[in-house]
Amino acid sequence: MEPSPSRDTVVIAHYGRLRRLCRLLLGDPQEAEDVVQEVFLKAHEAEQLGRAPMDWAAWLTRVAVNACRDRRRAGGWMRFRLRSRPIDDLPLVADAPGPGDVAVSEDTRRRIWTAFRGLPRRQQEVFALRYIEEQATADVAVALGLSPGSVKRHLYRAVRHLRRALEDAR
Please, how many CA atoms are within 13 Å of residue 156, restricted to the half-sphere of its CB? Predict the structure, then answer.
């Protein structure tokens, strides 16, 4: 049996990915940062109780998605959002524009973002994990507690919605 990774190793390996995922799901960088901190606090508590998961990536993803859902349901966090910069004005991954960002116009990015925000929450979660986080369909299913068939249905509907929204905007 392999020894479990150190806490610092887990944080370093997953912090950026979880922050990006939470920013996508919540639309607010400060809220995302708070959720990620909560996720790592829960990881620490699980480790202290001797309940460290075998697969940290899947466990952390599921805890992060559930924490984002809890924040959205709570609703009180919107007052904090009013004081922050709109997510449309923030880069999603890197501070410097990459080749893809240069090729895509600002108008197209705004249309994509608006279309993404128009998706139902479950479709946003599935789409973000599958296509942005590049997780396998089976891993998305485990992380969200869905069947692989359900993940595929949500992906199909999300992609269909995004295509329609982008075609309508032409």
Answer: 6
From first CA to last CA, the distance across the chain in angstroms is 56
Helical H segments across the chain, by residue range: 7-26, 29-48, 56-74, 78-81, 99-103, 106-117, 121-127, 137-144, 148-168
CATH of domain 102-170: 1.10.10.10
- The three-state secondary structure class of 68 is helix
In terms of residues, how long is the chain? 170
Q: Evaluate whether 132 touches 155 at the Cβ level (below 8 Å).
A: no
- In single-letter form, the type of residue at position 152 comes to K
Say which CATH architecture domain 1-87 belongs to: Orthogonal Bundle (1.10)
Residue 148 and residue 114 in contact, taking contact as beta carbons nearer than 8 Å: no
Tokens matching residue 86? 């709109």
Q: What pLDDT, in 10s, does the model give residues 11-48?
A: 888 899 999 999 988 888 888 999 999 999 998 888 88
Residues 6+ apart with CB under 8 A from 1: none
Residue 144 pLDDT greater than 80, yes or no = yes
87 HSE (CA, 13 A, CB side): 23
